[in-house]
Design a protein that fits this description.
about 270 residues; mainly alpha; MetI-like fold; globular
Length: about 270
Protein backbone atom coordinates (compact mmCIF):
# COMPACT_ATOMS: atom_id res chain seq x y z
CA UNK A 1 0.00 0.00 0.00
CA UNK A 2 2.79 2.39 0.93
CA UNK A 3 4.55 1.76 -2.39
CA UNK A 4 1.39 2.65 -4.29
CA UNK A 5 1.08 5.92 -2.38
CA UNK A 6 4.71 6.78 -3.17
CA UNK A 7 4.00 6.14 -6.86
CA UNK A 8 1.20 8.75 -6.99
CA UNK A 9 3.48 11.85 -7.31
CA UNK A 10 5.35 10.23 -10.21
CA UNK A 11 2.07 9.30 -11.89
CA UNK A 12 0.80 12.88 -11.55
CA UNK A 13 4.07 14.20 -12.98
CA UNK A 14 3.93 11.84 -15.97
CA UNK A 15 0.30 12.72 -16.71
CA UNK A 16 0.79 16.49 -16.43
CA UNK A 17 4.14 16.87 -18.16
CA UNK A 18 4.29 13.90 -20.58
CA UNK A 19 0.88 12.49 -21.42
CA UNK A 20 -1.05 15.79 -21.45
CA UNK A 21 1.44 17.69 -23.70
CA UNK A 22 1.60 14.75 -26.12
CA UNK A 23 -2.19 14.58 -26.18
CA UNK A 24 -2.46 18.31 -26.87
CA UNK A 25 0.07 18.06 -29.68
CA UNK A 26 -1.72 15.16 -31.32
CA UNK A 27 -5.04 16.97 -30.93
CA UNK A 28 -3.77 20.24 -32.44
CA UNK A 29 -2.38 18.33 -35.42
CA UNK A 30 -5.98 17.72 -36.61
CA UNK A 31 -6.81 21.45 -36.86
CA UNK A 32 -5.85 24.00 -39.51
CA UNK A 33 -4.63 27.55 -38.91
CA UNK A 34 -8.26 28.74 -38.61
CA UNK A 35 -9.14 26.13 -36.01
CA UNK A 36 -11.18 23.91 -38.32
CA UNK A 37 -10.84 20.10 -38.10
CA UNK A 38 -8.77 18.74 -40.99
CA UNK A 39 -6.41 16.03 -42.13
CA UNK A 40 -4.66 18.38 -44.55
CA UNK A 41 -1.70 18.83 -42.18
CA UNK A 42 -0.77 15.18 -42.54
CA UNK A 43 -1.18 15.37 -46.29
CA UNK A 44 1.06 18.45 -46.38
CA UNK A 45 3.73 16.69 -44.34
CA UNK A 46 4.09 14.02 -47.04
CA UNK A 47 4.71 16.67 -49.70
CA UNK A 48 8.11 16.94 -51.36
CA UNK A 49 9.04 20.00 -49.28
CA UNK A 50 8.69 18.29 -45.91
CA UNK A 51 10.06 15.01 -47.26
CA UNK A 52 13.30 16.77 -48.26
CA UNK A 53 13.37 18.53 -44.89
CA UNK A 54 13.01 15.21 -43.09
CA UNK A 55 15.81 13.64 -45.14
CA UNK A 56 17.98 16.70 -44.46
CA UNK A 57 17.32 16.44 -40.71
CA UNK A 58 18.27 12.76 -40.64
CA UNK A 59 21.36 13.39 -42.76
CA UNK A 60 22.70 16.14 -40.48
CA UNK A 61 21.81 14.14 -37.37
CA UNK A 62 23.69 11.17 -38.86
CA UNK A 63 26.79 13.29 -39.59
CA UNK A 64 26.75 14.89 -36.14
CA UNK A 65 26.40 11.48 -34.48
CA UNK A 66 29.09 9.89 -36.67
CA UNK A 67 31.70 12.60 -36.04
CA UNK A 68 30.86 12.67 -32.33
CA UNK A 69 31.40 8.90 -32.19
CA UNK A 70 34.66 9.01 -34.19
CA UNK A 71 36.05 11.60 -31.77
CA UNK A 72 34.59 10.25 -28.52
CA UNK A 73 35.54 6.58 -28.84
CA UNK A 74 39.33 7.08 -29.20
CA UNK A 75 39.10 9.79 -26.54
CA UNK A 76 37.38 7.38 -24.15
CA UNK A 77 40.09 4.77 -24.77
CA UNK A 78 42.80 7.37 -24.15
CA UNK A 79 41.21 8.56 -20.89
CA UNK A 80 40.88 4.93 -19.80
CA UNK A 81 44.66 4.61 -19.86
CA UNK A 82 45.33 7.70 -17.72
CA UNK A 83 45.83 7.77 -13.97
CA UNK A 84 43.53 10.72 -13.31
CA UNK A 85 40.47 9.66 -15.27
CA UNK A 86 37.97 11.79 -13.36
CA UNK A 87 40.11 14.90 -13.86
CA UNK A 88 40.14 14.55 -17.66
CA UNK A 89 36.45 13.72 -17.72
CA UNK A 90 35.73 16.82 -15.68
CA UNK A 91 37.66 18.99 -18.14
CA UNK A 92 35.53 17.66 -20.98
CA UNK A 93 32.27 17.97 -19.07
CA UNK A 94 32.93 21.51 -17.81
CA UNK A 95 31.78 23.21 -21.06
CA UNK A 96 28.34 21.65 -20.58
CA UNK A 97 27.92 23.87 -17.52
CA UNK A 98 28.06 26.94 -19.76
CA UNK A 99 24.83 28.17 -21.31
CA UNK A 100 24.32 26.85 -24.84
CA UNK A 101 23.49 30.32 -26.16
CA UNK A 102 26.79 31.72 -24.84
CA UNK A 103 28.78 28.93 -26.47
CA UNK A 104 26.97 29.50 -29.75
CA UNK A 105 27.77 33.21 -29.72
CA UNK A 106 31.41 32.37 -28.96
CA UNK A 107 31.53 30.29 -32.15
CA UNK A 108 29.93 33.14 -34.08
CA UNK A 109 32.87 35.31 -33.05
CA UNK A 110 35.38 32.60 -33.94
CA UNK A 111 33.91 31.83 -37.38
CA UNK A 112 33.28 35.45 -38.41
CA UNK A 113 35.35 37.16 -41.11
CA UNK A 114 37.43 38.88 -38.44
CA UNK A 115 37.33 35.96 -36.05
CA UNK A 116 40.02 33.67 -34.69
CA UNK A 117 39.75 31.07 -37.47
CA UNK A 118 40.34 33.57 -40.26
CA UNK A 119 43.07 35.31 -38.27
CA UNK A 120 44.99 32.05 -37.93
CA UNK A 121 44.34 31.13 -41.60
CA UNK A 122 45.61 34.52 -42.78
CA UNK A 123 48.71 34.26 -40.59
CA UNK A 124 49.48 30.88 -42.15
CA UNK A 125 49.09 32.29 -45.66
CA UNK A 126 45.64 30.90 -46.45
CA UNK A 127 42.77 32.89 -47.90
CA UNK A 128 39.88 34.04 -45.74
CA UNK A 129 37.10 31.50 -45.38
CA UNK A 130 33.43 32.21 -44.81
CA UNK A 131 32.67 29.48 -42.28
CA UNK A 132 29.85 31.30 -40.57
CA UNK A 133 26.41 30.67 -42.08
CA UNK A 134 27.55 27.36 -43.58
CA UNK A 135 26.57 23.76 -42.94
CA UNK A 136 30.19 22.98 -42.02
CA UNK A 137 30.02 25.45 -39.15
CA UNK A 138 26.73 23.93 -38.06
CA UNK A 139 28.24 20.44 -37.90
CA UNK A 140 31.37 21.64 -36.07
CA UNK A 141 29.40 23.49 -33.41
CA UNK A 142 26.91 20.64 -32.98
CA UNK A 143 29.65 18.02 -32.65
CA UNK A 144 31.46 20.17 -30.08
CA UNK A 145 28.27 20.45 -28.04
CA UNK A 146 27.39 16.75 -28.19
CA UNK A 147 30.85 15.21 -27.63
CA UNK A 148 30.51 15.08 -23.80
CA UNK A 149 27.15 13.32 -24.11
CA UNK A 150 28.61 10.74 -26.48
CA UNK A 151 31.80 10.34 -24.45
CA UNK A 152 30.32 9.56 -21.02
CA UNK A 153 28.38 6.36 -21.84
CA UNK A 154 31.20 5.10 -24.03
CA UNK A 155 33.76 5.75 -21.29
CA UNK A 156 31.61 3.98 -18.71
CA UNK A 157 31.43 0.98 -21.03
CA UNK A 158 35.15 0.76 -21.90
CA UNK A 159 36.26 1.54 -18.35
CA UNK A 160 34.27 -1.46 -17.11
CA UNK A 161 36.15 -3.89 -19.36
CA UNK A 162 38.66 -5.89 -17.36
CA UNK A 163 42.30 -5.57 -18.40
CA UNK A 164 42.66 -9.34 -18.03
CA UNK A 165 40.50 -9.81 -21.13
CA UNK A 166 42.73 -7.52 -23.17
CA UNK A 167 45.88 -9.22 -21.86
CA UNK A 168 44.46 -12.65 -22.66
CA UNK A 169 43.65 -11.54 -26.21
CA UNK A 170 47.21 -10.28 -26.74
CA UNK A 171 48.64 -13.47 -25.24
CA UNK A 172 46.63 -15.44 -27.80
CA UNK A 173 48.33 -13.54 -30.60
CA UNK A 174 45.75 -10.84 -31.30
CA UNK A 175 47.05 -7.61 -32.79
CA UNK A 176 46.00 -4.20 -31.45
CA UNK A 177 43.45 -3.95 -34.25
CA UNK A 178 42.02 -7.37 -33.37
CA UNK A 179 41.77 -6.41 -29.71
CA UNK A 180 39.93 -3.23 -30.66
CA UNK A 181 37.51 -4.78 -33.13
CA UNK A 182 36.91 -8.19 -31.50
CA UNK A 183 37.17 -7.40 -27.79
CA UNK A 184 36.74 -3.72 -27.00
CA UNK A 185 34.08 -2.88 -29.59
CA UNK A 186 31.70 -5.79 -28.82
CA UNK A 187 31.98 -5.28 -25.06
CA UNK A 188 31.49 -1.51 -25.30
CA UNK A 189 28.56 -1.73 -27.74
CA UNK A 190 25.93 -0.89 -25.06
CA UNK A 191 27.75 2.39 -24.37
CA UNK A 192 27.96 3.15 -28.08
CA UNK A 193 24.23 2.57 -28.51
CA UNK A 194 23.42 4.82 -25.56
CA UNK A 195 25.67 7.54 -26.94
CA UNK A 196 23.99 7.30 -30.35
CA UNK A 197 20.59 7.71 -28.73
CA UNK A 198 21.69 10.70 -26.65
CA UNK A 199 23.21 12.48 -29.66
CA UNK A 200 21.11 11.44 -32.67
CA UNK A 201 17.68 12.10 -31.17
CA UNK A 202 18.33 15.72 -30.04
CA UNK A 203 20.21 16.40 -33.31
CA UNK A 204 16.97 15.84 -35.22
CA UNK A 205 15.30 18.78 -33.49
CA UNK A 206 18.07 21.40 -33.33
CA UNK A 207 16.76 24.87 -34.13
CA UNK A 208 18.65 27.55 -32.20
CA UNK A 209 22.05 26.59 -33.66
CA UNK A 210 20.63 26.48 -37.18
CA UNK A 211 19.27 29.99 -36.73
CA UNK A 212 22.40 31.58 -35.20
CA UNK A 213 25.20 29.66 -36.91
CA UNK A 214 23.73 29.08 -40.38
CA UNK A 215 21.21 31.91 -40.61
CA UNK A 216 18.50 29.27 -41.26
CA UNK A 217 20.35 28.03 -44.35
CA UNK A 218 20.14 24.61 -42.72
CA UNK A 219 16.51 23.71 -42.09
CA UNK A 220 15.72 20.82 -39.78
CA UNK A 221 12.46 19.50 -38.36
CA UNK A 222 13.13 21.49 -35.21
CA UNK A 223 13.52 24.68 -37.25
CA UNK A 224 10.28 23.93 -39.10
CA UNK A 225 8.40 23.46 -35.82
CA UNK A 226 9.74 26.76 -34.49
CA UNK A 227 8.71 28.60 -37.66
CA UNK A 228 5.21 27.09 -37.67
CA UNK A 229 4.55 27.99 -34.03
CA UNK A 230 6.27 31.38 -33.78
CA UNK A 231 6.30 32.82 -37.30
CA UNK A 232 3.27 31.56 -39.21
CA UNK A 233 1.37 30.65 -36.01
CA UNK A 234 0.09 27.49 -37.66
CA UNK A 235 -0.04 25.35 -34.54
CA UNK A 236 -1.70 22.49 -36.40
CA UNK A 237 1.14 22.05 -38.87
CA UNK A 238 3.74 22.55 -36.15
CA UNK A 239 2.06 19.86 -34.06
CA UNK A 240 1.93 17.52 -37.05
CA UNK A 241 5.68 17.87 -37.59
CA UNK A 242 6.16 17.29 -33.87
CA UNK A 243 4.13 14.06 -34.03
CA UNK A 244 6.30 12.68 -36.83
CA UNK A 245 9.45 13.84 -35.02
CA UNK A 246 8.42 11.88 -31.93
CA UNK A 247 7.66 8.83 -34.08
CA UNK A 248 11.12 9.14 -35.65
CA UNK A 249 12.71 9.37 -32.21
CA UNK A 250 10.81 6.28 -31.05
CA UNK A 251 12.01 4.42 -34.15
CA UNK A 252 15.63 5.37 -33.43
CA UNK A 253 15.29 4.27 -29.81
CA UNK A 254 13.75 0.96 -30.88
CA UNK A 255 16.53 0.25 -33.38
CA UNK A 256 19.39 1.21 -31.05
CA UNK A 257 17.85 -0.44 -27.97
CA UNK A 258 17.53 -3.84 -29.61
CA UNK A 259 19.27 -6.56 -27.64
CA UNK A 260 22.61 -7.40 -29.19
CA UNK A 261 23.36 -11.12 -29.08
CA UNK A 262 27.09 -10.43 -29.21
CA UNK A 263 27.09 -8.11 -26.19
CA UNK A 264 29.09 -9.55 -23.38
CA UNK A 265 30.78 -12.11 -25.62
CA UNK A 266 34.21 -11.68 -27.11
CA UNK A 267 34.56 -12.42 -30.81
CA UNK A 268 36.82 -15.19 -32.09
CA UNK A 269 40.43 -14.20 -32.30
Amino acid sequence: MMRRLLFIPYLIWIVLFVVAPLGLMVGYSFFDISGNPTLANYGAFFSSEYFEMTLSSFWYAFLITLFSLLISYPLALAIRQTKHKMFWLLLIILPTWINLLLKTYAFIGMFGKEGLVNAVATALGFAEQQLLFSDIAFIIVSVYIFIPFMLLPIFNAVDGIENNLLSAARDLGASKWDVLMRVLMPLSLPGIKTGIQIVFIPSLSLFMITRLITGNKVITLGTAIEQQFLTTENWGMGSTIGVFLILAMMLVMTVTSGRNKETGRVGRL
